[in-house]
Design a protein that fits this description.
Elements: H1 2-20, E1 22-28, H2 32-48, E2 52-58, H3 62-75, E3 81-84, H4 86-92, H5 102-106, H6 114-119, H7 122-126, E4 129-130, E5 133-134, E6 137-149, H8 150-156, H9 164-174, E7 189-192, H10 195-204, E8 210-212, E9 218-220, H11 225-240, E10 244-247, H12 252-256, E11 262-266, H13 270-277, E12 283-287, E13 298-305, H14 311-324, H15 327-337, H16 350-358, H17 363-368, H18 381-396, H19 402-418
Parallel strand pairs: 1-2, 1-3, 7-10
Antiparallel strand pairs: 3-13, 4-5, 6-11, 6-12, 6-13, 8-9
């Protein structure tokens, strides 16, 4: 009898041990407080699922993560899950290493209900879909907003800009050489000489860098009237009117120091803006000013599941994917990090409602969701970012004219598209 009892106990221990052996890795690029929040979410999942052990591995910045994923795809050493931008995923899909999620999503036992799937915001679903196939779930999403110095706007009696014309007017009013030494001490506006900030103006003007045709091919449309107007607007604000400070790096420091009164950036900068402005001046954000259309870009990564893992690991990975997009976890993630919740169901959670009551301006990014624009999720987008970013820097730094810059970018993009 004793031997039988010991055998039962041993088998039970082995069963628990076997269950706990379902281990999966989740690679991410979230450092600092955001990384701490990722760890907290992973720990909560592991505690709720003792049969699964998710190991969150911080790889470094996005560049390091992208390189590690590409190298690991070649050596067949990919993890179960990883953050990834859409254009990274587009490079990995043809290699057959990314798990298609359609079957998981539609699974009547472990998938999403109709309500749950429809609640994920449409633009975010577009960012994870290739044709009819879904290869990821949205994770850390942000959008561009207009940050502004509330003290200065009150002091100058100005209204927050709603159009690009308003933005130029307010920038002119707020730009000052306060000590009259011939150097501007306070610029009305600031922007970064990056592809993302140019795309914010270009899309507001109804333009785009490339167009994906119905057959999947790419049409280069960077050298357009809309692009010329957008780039000229950025150039004029900096050089013709002298009302905009421009630089390659982030603008939360000069904003906090009062050197610029407004700038456009993603909501992910909110914590840096707040810490840089605290004790100096108030700040708030508003929708990106409208030009021809309202089309603020969305930014941020998704989470992909890789197919080179065991069936048990896939089950565990899917369970974790569903967990991180659940309403309560998205509320926690959004409140702790400032990113947007990816599902509208989060807006009904008690914690989100309490958060909004204390911070009503968090609804500004949510209000932009129906009008937001997304980057094409094609492998070429990496080249687009590099080429257009170089072009913007060259033009704003007066190494090329607007016309020369756009013509150069067009040729470089055509060459890159031909080599895909």
């Amino acid at each position: 009898m004793r031997k039988k009892f010991l055998l039962i106990v041993t088998l039970a221990i082995l069963a628990v041990f076997a269950m706990a052996n379902v281990e999966i890795e989740f690679w991410h690029a979230m450092g600092g407080a955001q990384g701490t929040t990722v760890t907290e979410i992973v720990n909560a999942f592991n505690e709720a699922n003792p049969d699964i052990n998710v190991k969150a591995i911080y790889v470094g910045n996005y560049g390091a993560l992208q390189q590690k994923l590409l190298v690991s795809a070649e050596s067949n050493t990919l993890p179960a899950l990883s953050q990834a931008y859409g254009n990274w995923t587009a490079k990995l899909i043809p290699r057959g290493v990314v798990e298609e999620l359609n079957g998981w999503i539609a699974n009547p036992e472990v998938g999403f209900s109709t309500e749950e799937w429809e609640a994920i915001w449409s633009p975010f679903k577009k960012m994870v879909t290739w044709g009819s196939s879904i290869y990821a779930l949205p994770f850390n999403k942000s959008t561009y907003v207009l940050y502004y110095n509330t003290d200065l706007f009150e002091q100058y009696g100005l209204e927050v800009p709603k159009t690009m014309e308003d933005l130029l007017f307010a920038s002119m009013m707020l730009t000052e050489d306060k000590n009259k030494d011939g150097t501007i001490d306070q610029y009305g506006f600031g922007y970064r000489t990056t592809v993302d900030h140019f795309m914010t103006f270009l899309r507001a003007n109804g333009g785009e860098a490339i167009e994906i045709l119905p057959d999947g091919s790419v049409k280069v449309i960077i050298n357009s009237k809309e692009a010329k107007e957008a780039l000229q607007f950025m150039y004029d604000m900096a050089h013709t009117y002298g009302v905009a400070l421009f630089q390659g790096g982030y603008l939360d420091a000069p904003f906090g120091d009062g050197k610029i009164a407004m700038f456009i950036e993603t909501i992910a900068s909110a914590s840096y803006v707040d810490s840089g402005s605290r004790g100096k001046h108030g700040w708030a954000w508003a929708p990106v000013p409208m030009w021809k259309v309202q089309a603020p870009p969305f930014a941020g990564t998704d989470v992909v599941m890789f197919s080179n893992i065991t069936p048990e690991q896939k089950d565990a990975a899917w369970k974790f994917l569903k967990f991180i997009v659940s309403p309560d976890i998205q509320a926690y993630w959004s409140i702790k990090t400032g990113y947007m919740p990816v599902t509208s169901l989060t807006l009904d959670t008690p914690q989100w409602k309490a958060y909004v009551e204390q911070n009503p301006t968090v609804l500004v990014p949510i209000s932009q969701i129906p009008f937001g624009s997304v980057d094409p999720n094609v492998a070429l987008w990496d080249d687009v970012r590099t080429i257009v970013g170089t072009m913007v820097g060259d033009v704003i730094n007066q190494k090329r004219t607007v016309e020369e810059g756009l013509a150069w970018a067009e040729q470089e993009l055509l060459r890159a598209a031909a080599n895909q």
